[in-house]
Amino acid sequence: MTDVALTLHPAKRTLVRRSPFMRKAFPYFLLAPAVIYLLGITLYPGIYAVYRSTMTGKFKLEYAGLQNYRELLVDNAFWTSLSNTLVLGVVTLSLEFFIALTLAALVYRDRWVKAWRILFLLPMLFMPSAVSFLWKLLFNDGRVISDLLTRAGFITGNIDFMGSTVLARLVLVVTDVWQWTPFLFIIFVAALQGMDKEVEEAARLDGASWRKIFFNISLPMMRPVIAIALVLRGIDILTMFASVHIITQGTPGGNTETLSYFIYRTAFKSFEQGYASAASVLLLVATIILAQTLVRRFFKSGVE
Amino acid sequence: MMAAKPERGIWLRKLVLAIWGLLCFLPILFFATIALRPRNEIIAPRPIYFPTLTIETWAKIMDEWPLITYFKNSVMAIAGSVFICLLLGIPAAYALARYKFRGREDIGFYILSTKMMAPAAVAIPIFVLFGQFRILDTVWALMLVYAAMNLSIVVWIIRSYMLDIPPEIEDAARTDGASDLRILWSIIIPMCLPGIVTAAVIAAIFAMNEYLFTLIIASRNAYPLSVALANFSGGSDGIIYNAIALVSFMAFFPILLLVILIQNHLSRGLTMGAVKG
Q: Using a CB-CB distance cutoff of 8 angstroms, which residues of chain B are in contact with residue A229?
């Protein structure tokens, strides 16, 4: 430091050093690479999907206007995949939420909480494709579940889990619940542990049961965390793909086909990319609307 | 401790936890024995719970399938993508955490909202784009996709850790004449290193897990572990589960080590900084 006066006025000094334009533009320079990269993978694909969705033909493209959309809206397979996605999503998310919250409530003041956490975390550390094969083996190819149920005396013989809609969906639900309940569990435990112990102590001294403490004190305080966790998990569940591709491939009769799998199958198995693009555009619009509202609503507090 | 009748409450609680623990662990144990058993004991008329354990089959599997190459592809694609994420993400996180400027919220939320993008919705354009650049079926393509997928998470996690650093430290450095970039490099980055490591680990896990993009990009040379699994079927042999189990554990152990490294930051990382665990 040569000039003592300047050290007393840090703000002034920076202004001297840099032009006002640079001063204003600097944060944009820091952000630009990331934003440009993300635009490249969101904006460009969006525009291309819109363009491609107006074309038909597998190799020679022809302009077809809104024909793909018109066909899509009367396509049963599309609507089935949409309703499957929602049904599977709601059932899976509710189960994961219920189990994760129960386990978190039981474990967060336990002396061995770190050990339980690692144990419950393990399924999440496998790749989803690996977990899909594991449950495909247990339910279907290896007949392990049937065998265990037989030994327990519930059934005789083998159950064909891919033969009925309910059972095939159940397999997908179990696979997802087994792997991803830990995701919610880890977040809920952290939220509960972060809570003030003294509030609980005080309530207990006043004679409140742990049930009352949990539902009237802890749970309301956890609400923002629960919302964020459910948004993140929910979006992942709505894009469920690996387990469908590996375990059911949509069987029986397309009743386990999710929207992601519908787009994949149409584009990369039937090679109807124009048609699949139309479905992509609809999905894209839906996710943009969903993302904008959910993100702003639930992450808002994190920004300030 | 917790319940009105302590004794019964504790045992019931421990029982529930133990049951879920077994439900988590037993399938993994079974999967491990799958990797260790001969092929004819995997799919039998009745499942075999206590098989002959052997690693002799591994030699045959390594002979038939380039497992080392799959592993190398995974490591390269993941490491490269994490590097891109940090390179682009750290300056962006710094701008969001420390500067006031017009559009800060909108840009921040735009970055976050890319996390909500359904992979299937952009799969076709990405496939066509990479085809035009002739990088389909390369590790580079996987790297670019994984980086794009994880950039939002990395920015938001690191931003959250940067917000924890008291601004006074920077002000002091600034009065000493340090430039903004200098402050970022020698003060902010070292101080939020736990956040950077957390972000890197979470990005690595998600990259290891990625399936849909990987499936359409990799077709022969660039298979990483996640999609290589889906190709272990040998005609009349059907699905070769012991190879699948072996590869699954090849991916599992490195991830386990990374997660143990950041276990106290895991919840914060998974919620992109929203929950301070």
A: 271, 275
Sequence-distant contacts of A53-59: CB under 8 A, at least 24 apart: A53/A274, A53/A277, A53/A278, A53/A280, A53/A281, A54/A274, A55/A274, A55/A277, A56/A274, A56/A275, A57/A274, A58/A271, A58/A272, A58/A273
Minimal Cα–Cα distance from A166 to chain B, Å?
A: 22
Across the interface, whether the CB atoms of B24 and A41 are under 8 A apart is answered no
To the question of domain A68-303 being in CATH 3.40.50.2300, the answer is no
Contacts of A20 in chain B (CB under 8 A): none
Most confident range (mean pLDDT) of A88-92, A299-303, B50-54 is A88-92
In 3-state terms chain A splits into helix, strand, coil percentages (rounded to 5) of 80, 0, 20
In the numeric block, which tokens belong to residue A297?
């609503």
Phi, psi of A62 (to 5 degrees): -130, 140
Please give the residue that has the higher pLDDT: either A92 or A205: A92
In the CATH scheme, what is the code of domain B66-270? Answer: 1.10.3720.10
Reference A107, options A17, A265, A247, A214; nearest CA is: A214
Question: In terms of CA atoms, which chain A residue is nearest residue B105?
Answer: A303
Cα–chain center distance at A194? 24
| pLDDT at residue B235 in the model | 67
So where are chain A's domains? 4-53, 68-303
